[in-house]
Design a protein that fits this description.
This protein is an alpha+beta fold. It has a single domain, classed as Alpha-Beta Complex (Homing Intron 3 (I-Ppo) Encoded Endonuclease, Chain A). The protein starts with 16 loop residues before the first helix and ends in a 25-residue tail after the last helix. Bound molecules: zinc ion.
Amino acid sequence: MRRKRLGTTTLPAHPTTEERFWAKVDKQGPIPAHRPELGPCWPWTGAVPKRSGYGRFNTGVKRAGHWVVVNAHRYSWKLHNGPVPDGLCVLHRCDNKPCVRPDHLFVGTKGDNNRDMVAKGRHWRQAGRQGSVGADGQSPVRPMATPADGRR
Ligand SMILES: [Zn+2]
């Protein structure tokens, strides 16, 4: 018997760009506290530079001798919706920058983003160097984390 294997392989030697992308996504992330109806976030597990807070994805494409590296959430949006319209940003409903879950993302202008940040109080959290609460006399009530009760 003769089996023709032309062009078919059981295991792709080179995963597609998209496969490489999803391999770095954790689909069981936290549920956003302020928007629980959105369901769990899908945080990027690859590189996330502190400065931007957004996941970075190396597309594997080289242009002018440099790897083309994109923001992971933008890439995710593009996968599902096509190119991001000129001048628009991809924003997060869940306010979780590393999240790449398509239905947590929407497009808007930079202005929307800033307004959104102000509305959510992100601007001062970023600006505050100490990051400590309670200077104004409000001591946050922190429920003690209950230790996962025992498997003995
Ligand atoms: Zn999210």
